[in-house]
Amino acid sequence: MKSSQKSMVDDSKTTEPTLPVLLDELDKTKEEVMNTYSNGLVKSIFEIGRLLADAKARKNDLTDVLGQADYEDKYNEMVENLPFGKKVADKFIRIYLTPYLRKIGTNPKLSRNLPDGYNNLYALTHKDIVKDPKVVMSLSEGFEKGNFISTKGVKVPSTKMTAVNAEITRLTNPSNDESKSGLDQDDRSEPVLNTVFATIKVSDEVFGKDQEMVWKLKRFLKSLKYPSASTSLFIEEKNVEKLEKVSLEKKQKADRERWEKENPTETFLPDDETSSQMEDVA
Question: What does DSSP say about strands 155-157 and 147-150: parallel, antiparallel, or unpaired?
Fold first, then answer.
């Protein structure tokens, strides 16, 4: 009897969950998420991400395709009825599923070192960050210590490491520049904070054919040049000059061809009007 009873217990543990059971769990997940969301703590973001990630994955416990579809519909319906909706729910999940952030965020002592707000954390899940081991290591070290070292040699609290609408492209250990700042050796071992807030790319083909667009681009770049002790702005002047030259040459060629077509017996002499206009923009 005992062996028979034991067999029955073991079999019950391996029984595939039914759709009604999973839907009941889904209701409980919604309740837990609502309670956790009201806390407003950074660690709550990771707990919500865990709850939603687990709930979303439960669909795979069903072997019935129709059952999986029904569960997915109910999951989406549940998420849409949360205070933040599906788009934000997906951000919570991605934050939780990012290993280096999860390690910090699920640690009660370290989670306080992370920036507030799911958008700030979500920006730190960017593929250019998580696929770069050096960047991940630097971020992890900074969050564990509770501070980063700025390019000016100033300690910055790790809670200020926000990257909303930004791409962090470089976080390196201090170089020769820091040796001049008078930092202690211990400080030099901490990561450098170097957050890039914008990357501007243009089409050479399109801009090269339109001189007016090049002028507008130059005006825009010029407007970005403002003095700030804590901001560094570097513009590839050579690239701008190259684009200028190409657009000027193409315009002059078009002018020449048009003029020669209208005046076949005369020699074309380009004027300096275009060049002077570009110099006015610079």
Answer: antiparallel
Residue with token string 């609290």: 157
**What's the chain's length in residues?**
282
The whole-angstrom distance between residue 265's C-alpha and the CA centroid of its chain comes to: 60
Examine the pLDDT at 73 and tell me if it is beyond 80.
Answer: yes
pTM tops 0.70, yes or no: no
C-alpha neighbours within 13 Å on the C-beta side of residue 277 = 13
Domain residue limits, the chain:
15-97, 113-193, 204-281
Backbone angles phi, psi at 123, to 5 degrees: -60, -25
Query: What are the tokens at 68?
Result: 């999986």
The 10s digit of each residue's pLDDT in 133-189 is: 888 888 899 899 998 877 667 788 888 876 532 333 333 333 333 333 333 334 334
Using H for helix, E for strand and C for coil, what is the string for the chain? Answer: CHHHHHHHHHHHHHCCCCHHHHHHHHHHHHHHHHHHHCCCCHHHHHHHHHHHHHHHHHHHHCCCHHHHHHHHHHHHHHHHCCCCHHHHHHHHHHHHCCHHHHHHHCCCCCHHHCCCCHHHHHHCCCHHHHCCHHHHHHHHHHHHHCEEEECCCCEEEHHHCCCCCCECCCCCCCCHHHHCCCCCHHHHCCCEECCECCCCCCCHHHHHCCHHHHHHHHHHHHHCCCCCCCCCCCCCHHHHHHHHHHHHHHHHHHHHHHHHHHCCCCCCCCCCHHHHHHHHHC
102 pLDDT tier (thresholds 50, 70, 90): very high
Q: How far apart (Å, rounded) are the C-alpha atoms in residues 96 and 87?
A: 15
CA–CA distance from 84 to each of 38, 87, 89, 191, 213 (Å)?
A: 12, 8, 7, 34, 41
